[in-house]
Amino acid sequence: MPPTGPRGRGRVRxxxxxxxxxxxxxxxxxxxxxxxxxxxxxxxxxxxIGCAPKKPPDSLERPAVQSIDIDGNGFLxxxxxxxxxxxxxxxxTKQSPPxxxxxxxxxxxxxxxxxxxxxxxxxxxxxxxxxGYFDAKVEGWDLHIVDDGKPSFLRDPPPKxxxxxxxxxxxxxxxxxxxxxxxxxxxxxxxxxxxxMLPVQVGETFVSDDLSAAEDIIRDQLQERGxxxxxxxxxAQVSADDHVVDVLIEGELxxxxxxxxxxxxxxxxxAQVQVPEALIRAEVAVEEGRPYRVSDINSTQRRxxxxxxxxxxxxxxxxxxxxGDRVPVRVELSRSKYRQLRTGVGVLLESGKQDVxxxxxxxxxxxxxxxxxxxxENRVGYTTLxxxxxxxxxxxxxxxxxxxxxxMSALSLSLPHWPARAWRLGNTFSFELGVEQGYxxxxxxxxxxxxxxxxxxxxxxxxxxxxxxxxxxLALAESEFRRTPLGLDFRERYLLTSLRQxxxxxxxxxxxxxxxxxxxxxxxxxxxxxxxxxxxxxxLKGDQRYYxxxxxxxxxxxxxxxxxxxxxxxxxxxxxxxxxxxxYAERLYLGGSSDVRGWVRNHLGPYIxxxxxxxxxxxxxxxxxxxxxxxxxxxxxxxxxxxxxxxxAGDYGGVAFFDVGNAWTALSQVVDADRAGLPVALLPSVGLxxxxxxxIGAVRLDFAYRLDREPMFSLEPRxxxxxxxxxxx
Length: 729
What we know:
The chain has 729 residues and is mostly beta strands.
């Protein structure tokens, strides 16, 4: 006997049993084929095909399922967590894949089975009950024939049916009370904090899975405070008539515990690991005698994974072997491949830059068996900076003048545990051949650095940079840039030496697709003649990001994030006027796929009008743009902000965003405008985007529209299109 749901199981409605307002087409078996339809089969037989493709024997009596829809599952059901795509996942009856059997032999049709469909009604009612809809009822199924399966030459398809389920969800059951018992020893403030973490909240719809989630949250909080043997049990008392539920969560703390002895074991041969045990133990945050904390166990796992030499890291508290209040810990390790060669192809398409490249990277994570890490990265490609909508107007010559081959090669070697465990000494040699608006360039560079990890979220670094920069095919003639009032320096070749200090705070829950937490990076760069270079300036840059989960506002079938970003920079030259300048390539630029997306890459900010047109100008806020051919020169001050709402269903998602920002020639330009009562001119853009979470990261397609009417950018395109990997921020 099949199981029954809260209101009994659903039924397959016959045409006569359907609702009066619904027209139901009766299922029909295909009529027999007339004899003449087999005449072409003589030719087909010669080709070993036969009169018609052979189909499953039962398909004559069971139609193929073309689609499944659910009626009555709520207004805007997709946003209420009861969308058809969610409910179809609960059912055993499935839709036939599009073009089943034609594109891929593995994609076979799904045929209707009335017994399975009857049980699917019970499955749906049970699913609704778990979501807090205890009165939900599947009234039945309407079956609509959409194709009667007429035979044709070499084809004899089965009939196809559309299934429509009729659901009455009823009223939801809400949480009336959440009571915590047995946790009084924790104190009021901690209990209040734990209450706010729980997915079960008073006034919200009751979801049965939230009970186990609440148990896990409270257990983790107790174990973080030393209660290794803490037990938590949650149960619900349902009042069906009132559509309310009372939740009782009972906890048993147990004794406070400390860590015992830490043992390290290897999955496989220890000889294959080839890493000194002293270096492994230096990464273990669990210390014998310290209070038991889950965060120390998790930190140990992260640290050991971070070495890059282990494919499996298990940190297991041996609760069953505890002696008194001491809990021993076992660390299980399995080595990974120390040497890796990765190759790939990359494509970037955005307004103002199109790039295609191939890459080949070699990595050795345990050089000389001392955790020395060697990385050799190589990328070769071709880049064009022309705006796609101007190709037809400017012709092939303009396209070729802003295009060229690109090369990036970097060899780096890093030494861990120097000068202490959480520090790493690095040394990088690199070469880049690139293309920018108005010039091509080549630059070799050497950069030694030291990086230290302060805690799980905070790290600091300091580095020295020695860079030889050479312009290739510079669009500006020397007579043009020498008379500009911006202090631009376009000398053919220069030496840049600088010191850089950086602080990074990373509390995101995921590095690639974050849903909550924050991230900030702040750096100071000092360039000067006293370091052996050709320029004197100080540069400050900051990038702060926040991520807020939208879980409480979305159904379980969806997940979302509200992301915010603030970034800016300031460059201040100093010293003798001859050296108090900033190289063209070191200035601050905005516009493009990663900041203010309504603008072409690097086009938001100061620019020089194209000297080839006979018009030489330095852009300024309020001045009319004389022509579309401009040369961005960046600024000495920049500021931008972004806000973005991201909603995902499975691996697919959509975003809505707002960006605003600008770059100015100098800080004095903003100060003078403020004193004169003029707007600072932060220019906005809005847009929509699509996302796909691929195995290698988020694939992003954004469409952004400029909202400003600033005369300075009157000839710039108003629509920006960006396609790339990874989120904008």
